[in-house]
Amino acid sequence: MEEGEKHMTIRRELIDELLKECSDPKQLLTEGGFLKQLTGSLIERCLEAEMEEHLGYPKHGKRNEEHTNVRNGRSRKTLKGSQGEVTVDIPRDRDASFEPVLIPKHQTRLEGFEEKILALYARGMTTRDIQAQVHELYGVDISPTFISNVTEAVLDEVHQWQNRPLESVYPILYVDCLVVKVRENQRIINRALYLALGVDVEGQKELLGMWLGHHEGAKFWLSVFTELHNRGLKDIFIACVDGLTGLPEAIETLYPQTRVQLCMVHMVRHSLKYVSYKHRKAVAADLKLVYSAATESEALVYLDLFAEKWDQQYGSISKLWRANWSHVMPLFAFPEDIRKVIYTTNAIESVNMSLRKVTRNHRIFPSDEAVYKVVYLAMHNIAKKWTMPIRNWVPALNCFAIEFGDRFPQ
Question: Where is this region: Disordered (predicted)?
Answer without folding.
Answer: 57-86
